[in-house]
Structures are given as structure tokens and as C-alpha cells.
């Protein structure tokens, strides 16, 4: 009986330890994801000369598996080569950065602005567009990451691109070149 109880105890201890490892791995991945989201949003804030506000989708959107090949091609066509990428689970973008110009919302409730009213909304300081980020694809060593970024402000108003990041000693740094950029 004591041997049986000891076996159960060891088994449960192993399961608990394994659960801690998964939690630690998820926490590390969440930190990496938030650092990348922070870099993307800060870059948008820095490039936005008008200083207007914008909505940001609270959660990433999933990409079809066929998009993974495009992200891999993009990452491999630039400076460093990476063998393959794998999508991280969908994650929350909220908490990546705090700025009064960024308004985090559930993207299902965002409505496209009337094109005739966009300039007036900008002048009033109201958000006129929506930034959406895809799930991040990481390489096996977690030193290269790629994701899709889009900013839409109407039916024929917006842009997007595939962004690639490298982990450096100072954190995640976006590569200067982008792939698959679009504009409307």
C-alpha cells in the first residue's frame, strides 16, 4: 500500500513539474509576443505624423497554415536564414503598450468610417482606423519572428505588410525590409 501511495505521489509530482514547465514556456512566449507587439505599435506611433488616435484589435487574428510558407519565405529572403516557422497561439495585444492614442477594442464591433467624415474625425482627435496583428510565427530557436500587420481606415483606405523581427541582446528588433506590403 505504501508503495502504491508513493507511486501516486511521484506521478502527481511529475505532472505538476511538467505543468510548471509548460506554464514557464507559455509565459516566455507571451513576453516575446508582447515585446514584438509593443515594437510594432510604437513604430506606428512614431511614424504617424498627424498624431491621431486609432483603434487596435485586442486579440491577434489567426492566419491560415498556407500563410506560414509566405512568412517563412519572407524571413528567409532577408539577412538571416531560418529553417522553418511555427505559429504561436492567438494572444492578447492589450497590455503591450499604453498610450492615450491607442484604443483597444474587440474588432468585431469596429465599423468603417464614412469616407466623407474621416478628415473631420481626425481633426477632432477621434480614432478613424483599426490596427490588426496576426498571430506571430517563431522559428524553433525563438530568434526570428514574423507577423502580418494591417491598418484599415475604410473600404479603400489602409495598408499592411509582413514584418520580420530578430532577437538581439537588447530585445526584438524589426528588420528594415518588409515583404508582401499592400496599400489601398
Overview of this structure, please?
The chain is α+β, with helices and mostly antiparallel strands and 184 residues long. It is built from 3 helices and 9 strands; from the N terminus they run αβαββαββββββ. Strands 1, 2, 3, 4, 5, 6, 7, 8 and 9 form a 9-stranded mixed β-sheet that branches. Strand 5 (137-139) and strand 6 (144-154) form a beta hairpin.
Which short descriptors sum up this protein?
184 residues; 3 helices; 27% strand; alpha+beta
Brief summary of the model shown:
With 184 residues, the chain is an alpha+beta fold. It has 3 helices and 9 strands.
Topology, element by element:
Blueprint: H1 2-47, E1 54-57, H2 65-77, E2 85-87, E3 102-105, H3 118-123, E4 130-133, E5 137-139, E6 144-154, E7 157-168, E8 171-174, E9 179-183
Parallel strand pairs: 1-3, 1-4
Antiparallel strand pairs: 2-5, 4-6, 5-6, 6-7, 7-8, 7-9
Inertia-based shape: globular
Mean pLDDT: 76
Report the helical percentage.
Answer: 25-40%
Based on secondary structure, the structural category is alpha+beta
Ranges where pLDDT stays below 50 over 5 or more residues in a row are 3-26
CA gyration radius, whole angstroms: 20 Å
Total helix count? Answer: 3
* Most strands sheet: 9 strands, mixed
Number of domains: 1
The sequence of SSEs as H and E is HEHEEHEEEEEE
Amino acid at each position: 500500500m505504501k508503495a502504491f501511495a508513493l507511486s501516486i505521489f511521484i506521478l502527481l509530482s511529475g505532472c505538476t513539474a511538467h505543468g510548471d514547465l509548460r506554464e514557464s514556456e507559455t509565459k516566455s512566449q507571451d513576453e516575446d509576443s508582447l515585446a514584438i507587439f509593443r515594437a510594432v505599435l510604437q513604430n506606428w506611433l512614431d511614424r504617424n505624423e498627424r498624431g491621431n488616435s486609432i483603434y487596435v484589435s485586442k486579440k491577434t487574428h489567426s492566419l491560415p497554415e498556407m500563410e506560414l510558407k509566405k512568412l517563412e519565405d519572407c524571413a528567409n529572403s532577408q539577412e538571416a536564414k531560418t529553417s522553418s516557422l511555427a505559429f504561436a497561439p492567438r494572444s492578447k495585444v492589450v497590455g503591450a503598450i499604453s498610450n492615450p492614442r491607442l484604443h483597444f477594442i474587440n474588432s468585431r464591433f469596429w465599423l468603417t468610417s464614412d469616407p466623407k467624415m474621416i478628415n473631420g474625425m481626425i481633426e477632432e482627435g477621434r480614432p478613424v482606423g483599426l490596427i490588426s496583428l496576426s498571430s506571430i510565427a517563431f522559428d524553433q530557436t525563438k530568434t526570428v519572428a514574423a507577423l502580418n500587420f494591417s491598418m484599415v481606415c475604410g473600404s479603400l483606405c489602409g495598408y499592411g505588410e509582413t514584418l520580420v523581427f530578430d532577437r538581439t541582446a537588447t530585445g526584438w528588433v524589426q528588420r528594415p525590409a518588409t515583404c508582401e506590403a499592400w496599400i489601398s
